[in-house]
Each structure stands twice: as C-alpha cells, then as structure tokens.
Write a structure and sequence with these properties.
Length: 334
C-alpha cells in the first residue's frame, strides 16, 4: 500500500519495436487499470542486455519505449515511468534474491530455454538469472499487482515463490504479488505462424503489426495473415489463424468472439481481414499521433525521466534497506 492505494509494477524490454501483441497483452491493460493503483512502469533496459545489443540503438529504443508509454495514455505525473538502469536498487536486490533462488527453478523457465536456443552463441549467466532480476523489479516496490501477458506467468510464479521463501525466513518483508491478465489479447499470435506468439524480436516483419506501422502496412499485413481453407469465421482451435484474428478484433473493439462470429456469418475471409485491419488502425492512430507530438518535446521527456527516477529510487530504497538489514549487512555509518 502506498498513499492508500495498492501498488502495481510492470515493465517492458526495450528490444525491437513494440508489437500489437505488446499493446493488447500489456500496455492497453496498464492504461486501463492505472488509476486504481500507485503505479511503477519501467523500461527494463537491464533485462535487454541479456541479448547482445547495439548501444546507440538500445538507448534510442529505450527512450522511444518510454515515450510510447506516455503516448499510449499513461500520465507521467501520476504513473512512475522510468528506466530500470537509473535505479540501482534493482541490481542490488537482484543479487540478494539470487541467493534465494535455486538453479533447478531457473532451469525450468521456458523463456530461458527458448532464448538460449535462439541465441546459442551467447547463453550468458544474465539470461539464466533474468527471472531473478524480474523478481527484484517487482518486490522492490512491494507490488500487489503485476499486469503481464500469459507468457510471463511462469516468471511471476517464481517471483511469488522467492517472496514466500524469503518471508518464511525473515518475517513479512515482501508483498506477495498477483498477476493481472487482461480479459482479451492476453496472447496474440504471429500473423504468419499462429502457433507462435507475436514477438518484437521475430525476424519476419509480416508476422507482427508494429505500433508504428502506417495504415496501409497494417491492412496489408492483416490481408496476408495465414488462415485456412475452411472458409467460415469461427472461434475454434481448428482455425488458429482465424481465432487469432478474432482475438485481435475483440481486443480492439471490445466485442466477444460470439458477436464477431455473428457479424461475419456468411461472409468471406477478405471482408473479415479488412475489418480487423481497420479496427487495428483506429486503435493505433491516436497513439501514433500523440507519440509524434511527444517526440518534439525533448525537455518534457527529460524532465519525466529525471523526476520519476528519483521517485522510484526513493520507494525502492525503503525496501532495499529493510532487506539488507534482514540478511545481515552492516549498517552504513553516516
Ligand atoms: P521479445 O520478442 O524481445 O522477447 P516480446 O515481444 O515477447 O519481446 P516482452 O518485452 O517480453 O515482449 O513483453 C512485454 C509485455 O508484452 C509482457 O507483459 C508480455 O507478456 C506482453 N506480450 C508480449 N508478447 C505478447 C503477445 N504476443 N500477446 C500478448 N502479450 C504479449
Ligand atoms: N520479463 C518481462 C519484462 C519484465 C517485467 C518485469 C514484467 C521485466 N521485469 C517486472 C513485469 C514485471 C518480459 O519479458 N515481458
């Protein structure tokens, strides 16, 4: 509890360009529930270097992502929007928590297995301990709620286990967080391979709709989306491509799958794909416009970065000092 409100933490990596999956699965929910919580939304740039990055590119993407948080509707006066690397407590708590996390637990993480297979030439220790840093992010702010897409559930379970383990030894130090999964859009799949999640690091740009794609590109990608030869718009596992497009459509215009089936009853895939494309365009257009305005205002973004890093440091230090004391680090002499 901070200032009478429950606390919420979430973050995104500044790797690649944000996709519609990131927006519908995460960012959109962040905006919807922000008012009910004391929120911390981080650009988790320290997580990004678990995969090799070009430094200039990472800096640029991190700033773009932070700007996009605001463009998507998060007011930085009310929501603490900041860079993870500006708050040293994340790294400090991560080290401590790594001493309370078992190798076996980390070995089970599917994201590690996937990323290790993808980056076989760079399976570094940071990639392995990535979930510990994520646990530190969350526990540092005593978050009650963590809005994420379904793919992050395993990491969140681990965070809870680490918090409970620590609390069992030292008393009630950490709030044990709950995941918040949105009603729709929790797992948007690739438009080119509906068995894979839409991902910003996918090499095939046609599989993902990017938040900054122009309307023509969005419509073209929807039209080219892989479907099937069944020919009816039905929400079922036998038609994964159509099911994914229905999920996207529902998340964009608030309809239920049954309503969408009824709307396109007797109509072809061409009409349906066009409607999906148009729905996506109308969701992304205002975000793109606000983003373009914000990028013109360098001083404002700089101000947000500075103020919010200070705010995040203030809250995170409270937890960190408590944890350091519990594990037996000597007090600093001031
Ligand atoms: P990468 O490809 O670099 O691993 P990513 O696209 O999977 O990245 P993340 O930075 O890992 O994105 O995730 C940011 C947030 O977006 C997380 O909360 C995650 O659950 C959510 N998310 C990512 N992809 C999807 C998706 N396809 N559908 C729904 N939510 C998603
Ligand atoms: N691992 C997450 C990003 C992330 C995160 C977090 C999400 C890092 N720290 C804390 C929620 C809370 C991902 O890959 N999407």
């Amino acid at each position: 509890m901070l200032d009478g409100k429950k606390t919420l933490f979430s973050g995104m990596q500044a790797t690649g360009n944000l996709t519609l999956g990131n927006y519908l699965g995460a960012l959109k929910n962040w905006v919807q529930i922000a008012d009910d919580y004391q929120t911390f939304y981080s650009v988790v740039d320290m997580h990004s270097i678990t995969v090799r990055q070009d430094p200039a590119e990472l800096r640029k993407r991190a700033r773009n992502l932070l700007t996009l948080y605001i463009a998507a509707g998060l007011d930085p006066e009310k929501n603490c929007i900041y860079y993870q690397s500006h708050v040293s407590g994340h790294a400090e708590l991560s080290w401590i928590l790594s001493c309370f996390t078992y190798m076996g637990e980390l070995n089970r993480m599917t994201q590690f297995k996937d990323k290790a297979a993808k980056h076989a030439d760079n399976i570094n220790a940071g990639l392995f301990t990535y979930p510990v840093l994520m646990a530190a992010d969350i526990l540092l702010y005593q978050a009650d709620v963590v809005p994420v897409g379904i793919d992050q559930m395993q990491h969140l379970e681990l965070t809870r286990d680490i918090a409970i383990r620590f609390n069992n030894i030292y008393g009630d130090v950490f709030t044990v967080p709950e995941a918040y999964i949105g009603k729709s859009g929790a797992k948007i799949m690739s438009l080119q391979d509906p068995s894979k999640k839409m991902s910003k690091s996918d090499e095939n740009p046609n599989g993902s709709i990017y938040l900054m794609d122009d309307p023509d590109t969005i419509i073209r990608k929807c039209k080219r989306a892989v479907t099937d030869s069944i020919g009816c718009v039905k929400y079922c596992d036998e038609q994964p491509g159509i099911k994914n497009l229905i999920d996207i459509y529902c998340a964009c215009c608030g309809k239920t799958p049954a309503e969408v089936e009824a709307e396109f009853d007797g109509k072809g895939y061409g009409d349906f794909k066009m409607a999906v494309g148009e729905a996506v365009v109308s969701v992304l257009k205002p975000i793109q416009e606000r983003y373009a305005d914000l990028t013109k205002n360098k001083d404002y973004i700089d101000h947000v970065i500075k103020e919010n890093a200070e705010k995040a440091s203030y809250y995170s230090n409270k937890t960190l000092r408590k944890v350091q004391k519990k594990v037996g680090f000597p007090e600093k002499i001031r």
